[in-house]
Amino acid sequence: MTRTRTAIRGGLVITAADELHADVLIEDGRIAALAAHGSDAAAWETERSLDATGKYVIPGGVDAHTHMDFPFGGTFSSDDFATGTKAAAWGGTTTIVDFAVQTKGHPLREGLDHWHAKADAQCSVDYAFHMILSDVNEGTLKEMDLLVEEGITSFKLFMAYPGVFYSDDGQILRAMQRTAANGGLIMMHAENGIAIDVLVEQALAAGRTDPRHHGEVRRALLEAEATHRAIQLARVAGSPLYVVHVSAEEAVAELSQARRLGLPVFGETCPQYLFLSTDNLAEPDFEGAKYVCSTPLRPREHQAALWRGLRTNDLQVVSTDHCPFCFSGQKELGRGDFSKIPNGMPGVEHRMDLLHQAVLEGHIGRRRWIEIACATPARMFGLYPKKGTIAPGADADVVIYDPHAEQTLSADTHHMNVDYSAYEGKRITGQVETVLSRGETVIDRRTYTGRAGHGQYVPRGTCQLLG
Ligand SMILES: NC(=O)NCCC(=O)O
Ligand SMILES: [Zn+2]
Ligand SMILES: [Zn+2]
User: Fold this and answer.
1) Do 25 and 109 lie in a common domain?
2) Which residues have C-beta atoms less than 6 Å from ligand 1?
3) pLDDT digit string, tens, across residues 166-184
4) Phi, psi of 242 (to 5 degrees)
5) Which long-range contacts (CB under 8 A, 24 or more apart) does 112-117 make?
6) Are 247 and 269 members of one domain?
7) 443: helix, coil or strand?
8) Are residues 305 and 231 located together in one domain of the fold?
9) Nearest ligand to the CA atom of 65
10) End of a domain among 348, 380, 412?
11) Which tens digits make up the pLDDT trace of 148-163?
């Protein structure tokens, strides 16, 4: 085997734990060593040297919540694994964890095989899977044990979307009991879908059909109620719990209270809840449909609680919930009836940049940026320290990040396969310059040099934040 050695010289290495003025040695796709500028590093003999002077050297992002080619709302999300992982690479994300879907009445294995068929040989960066449980029954529960053993260690359940992915409290309790025994982690979409459907019906009957009503019927209290219920069910089952896409201040309060009691309860939020609001959902001429996702965008006042939660570690992870639908032909399915707008927003390309912007705006510090976007998602989902850090032995998933570059987000320049940007015209300071995935350059000074099929499937361990 030919040995390839690369040095990244002159940068500021930032991990969740440290900031070091250090050079990084990469050998055969792994981090081999770090050394202070001008020390041992001067003697490294390498085939390749990348100059990171004045730049940050950070771990590749781990986006633990994506939906590529996802069947939803009568259509499929518009990024497949080829386009979506290429966009991820452009944005400095080198690992995604996507959701394989169990079709109701069918085994988990079938859903998983289907997701491998979609993803294998298509990805530009590494990928792993969670499993969506659409049908919790004796067979499914047994299959969960096998999946945990082979590296699918987390399962998403929905308290929302009756008739689609919804599970009732009994099914939820059974699945939680199973993970309490097999080491898996339940990821909960916490909204009271039964109550929401009543409010949807009433809104439509009263002629309230615009996208903004999507946000109005999906009440913050119904997110908080479901979050509370999920926490209590997890307590009864003795299982840990990860609540996905938290958007409401009242839901953060439920998580904070549980964590004060010492319960193994975790929370994720997403950039759309931190940067966008119901003002976007109210944009005229049906433009609000671009921002329809669930949980919904909230009034701007909720953002302070989300930022606080990220600072106090009551929220641990920022993922994108990347689930893009084109405005033309997809979001338009819901003209005249907001409940028919496919739920989901694009975002896989912009998470690292938006969170860097949050550093500049004083919401979080630099190491916390890396913690919530790289290290903790890797730990949460059993990928650490292979992913999420820069340390000897870790995969050489490394981003050279220019903290001074200026960019404007736009559908004209993004790489996601979707015809609008949720952040059109937003100015960002900071930009991904170069991206290595297991030592291979996939973005080279703002040119894509990767290939579909470079990305490898990564089986995962269990949650590393317990006990
Ligand atoms: N979040 C959303 O609106 N769409 C994707 C499916 C989900 O995560 O609930
Ligand atoms: Zn969800
Ligand atoms: Zn999702």
Assistant:
1) no
2) 67, 189, 245, 293-294, 321, 323, 343-344
3) 999 999 999 999 999 999 9
4) -125, 115
5) 112/147, 112/152, 116/457
6) yes
7) strand
8) yes
9) 3
10) 380
11) 999 999 999 999 999 9
